[in-house]
Design brief:
- This protein has helices at 10-31, 43-60, 66-71, 74-93, 110-132, 141-159, 269-296; strands at 165-172, 176-181, 187-203, 209-219, 225-231, 236-238, 241-248, 258-265.
- The chain is of the alpha+beta class and 297 residues long.
- The protein folds into two domains: 10-163 and 269-296, no CATH class; 166-265, Tick-borne Encephalitis virus Glycoprotein, domain 1.
- α1 (10-31) packs across α5, α2 (43-60) packs across α5 and α5 (110-132) runs antiparallel to α6 (141-159).
Amino acid sequence: MSLFSKPWKLSSGFIFGGVLVLVGFLLQILVGPVRWSLLASPVNLVLLVLFIAFLFLAYAMKGKVTFFAWLGSSAAAVPSIACTLLMTMIMGLTAQIPERGWLGNMVTFWPFVLCYVWLTAVVGLVAVNHICRLSSSWKEIPAVLNHLGLFITLVCATLGSADKQDLEMMLKEGGSQTVASREDGTTVQTGLSVRLNDFTMETYPSGMPKRFASDVVVTSKSGKEIPGVIEVNKPMEVDGWKMYQYGYDEEAGTESTVSILQLVKDPWLPFVYAGIFMMLAGAFLMMIVGFKREETK
């Protein structure tokens, strides 16, 4: 297969996918699992700009480089979807416990990551194709929304994971806390001050927990005091942090004066939602276009 002359077909795509998986295994052996923490802002932003620049360069050179022309075609889309789907099925059928080895933590498994990068590149290049044809036909709008929305969702969900924070904060009644801890025990300044006024717990006759909640006052970065009650499945959101009721002093039970909150912050999540809404809008417009075609016939 030549990148410049011989045409790439569907079979070439499956060969390419096999090579990609092999390269992934070699990277897994040589450098270890993917360390997403190294891609935290601003590294992920730089990578995003470079990736988008590559897509537009590939579109501009697709007439000269056969590989780029193939990358934005169905001959690349089908095998990329197949490889990614296979990796996703393995992930779904395998218990995701990092201690169990490579397949126990698929999001850091190089073959899994490379297949998703390949799929994202295909979707992105198809989106660029439709965007560049948008000026000649408004009928490209549904396809633009579908492919661009999927591209945004894939990219932001992947690169954004490096900036996501999932922390635990332990509070005592009458006390305040400004720091929370990571899974490895290191602490993080949240920028918030959380005061626990009261922790309440209700139980069933059998003694099993029925409801437990934390009555808190959260002071935001701006100094505004925000009162609220945090319950299981009823989080409180302040300054981008979502605070969930996570635990309590189980030994004390109903007499517990300690509450454990889970603090989650994902700055890329709004963009993921935006991408999903774009796909929904594209699907809706495609339905309208389809109905109009049927009426015309």
